[in-house]
Design goal:
Two copies of one chain form a homodimer. By secondary structure, chain A is α+β, with helices and mostly antiparallel strands. Chain A is built from four helices and eleven strands, in the order βαβββαβββααββββ. Strand 11 of chain A pairs antiparallel with strand 10 of chain B.
Chain lengths: ~220, ~220
């Protein structure tokens, strides 16, 4: 619930609950990096679309991978887009439903989609996306061929206009409600990951590499 | 990876990987109901925004609660919006990075935002949202007063144009890559929830109700 500098513009300023707004660059980066996927918003024929997409950050650049629909690529190239990453941390159950809420960390980043066409930048972005999903994985599987690189869509967005919003801690009930005999508190939410499950056609004798066992973010 | 009837229009038809598209109404409803939150897309001054929001489904109506920004309410009332719910089920690690992917279930629903003003519908929607987050909770905490109801923003969207996209199972590598000595498989992802943590100001002697212990979705 802090509120510091950087990347804030009138469009990304948190209006409703300013105490939950945070504009610190490192806060924004931590959330972007921890989130496994993002939701990309774009406009097509006046209709907004929101599509889940894998992303990765390289410095101040956000890369979006594998457009799930060709519509998306066409609609975000050189167009205004929004990239949102949300991490859920808890259900906040207050004494009143009105004050019940969620603990979360989210980033909303606005920018313009740029199609990555330079093969070197495309390879860098591809590596970043693979490492974003599972650090250490880039060296563990087969790298893309030139043909695969050409068949891959990568969109870049510069991180120049973004804000983070964070809620932590207990419910905040109306003062008189604290006397009610109603339980209140938080149910924590964790992203949890199981142990690697071998592909059915795995070459006998192979085992999952160390960086994939006990996977966590 | 099935593909059946219902709710499909040219705008929601899955174009890129049609075998992953599913338009069965019950499939769509299960995903909407299991997802704790959605991401709402709307357009404001030509700029798309994507905001995480709690939702609930009542029949064919999706209710969106607690606009995190007043900007959102203004921008989705009687305007085209997109509601996307994404459930992540696994990291799909192929022998090639090109074929690496995610297992997931997602719904993209398009519609028009309608501000709920009728007090009875607003109360119904409020209850649905509370029960969506934690079934059994509506009867366990203080219900909204008329004043609180007025201070709450609820947007309704009819579910008439939606599609689900689902990926399950093992990686699908190029045939020649199966001979590589590279591990491949899936790391399962679970949404997991801890036991309820008492509010610091909880009245002594109160314990979390049964429906909140061992919480799962």
């Amino acid at each position: 619930m802090e509120s510091t500098s950087a990347m804030s513009t009138p469009r990304t300023k948190i209006k409703r609950l300013p105490e939950r707004g945070s504009y610190d660059t490192s806060t924004i980066e931590v959330i972007l990096d921890e989130g496994l996927i993002c939701h990309v918003g774009f406009v097509h024929d006046g209709q907004p679309f929101v599509i889940p997409t894998i992303h990765a950050r390289v410095g101040d650049t956000l890369y979006l991978h594998g457009s799930p629909a060709s519509r998306m690529l066409r609609s975000i190239r050189d167009q205004p887009i929004c990239v949102t990453v949300t991490l859920l941390d808890g259900l906040v159950l207050a004494r009143s439903h009105f004050h019940s809420s969620m603990n979360y960390r989210s980033v909303v980043a606005l920018g313009t989609g740029r199609e990555v066409t330079d093969p070197a930048e495309k390879m860098t972005a591809f590596e970043a996306v693979v490492e974003h999903v599972a650090r250490g994985q880039w060296d563990s599987a087969r790298r893309p061929t030139n043909k695969e690189l050409k068949a891959t869509s990568i969109i870049a967005m510069e991180l120049s206009e973004a804000s983070a919003k964070i809620r932590t801690g207990d419910p905040e009930d109306d003062e008189e409600d604290y006397e009610l005999d109603i339980w209140a508190g938080v149910i924590p939410i964790f992203a949890s990951f199981g142990q690697p499950i071998d592909d059915e056609r795995l070459t006998p004798g192979l085992t999952a590499p160390d960086h994939l066992t006990d996977y966590e973010r």
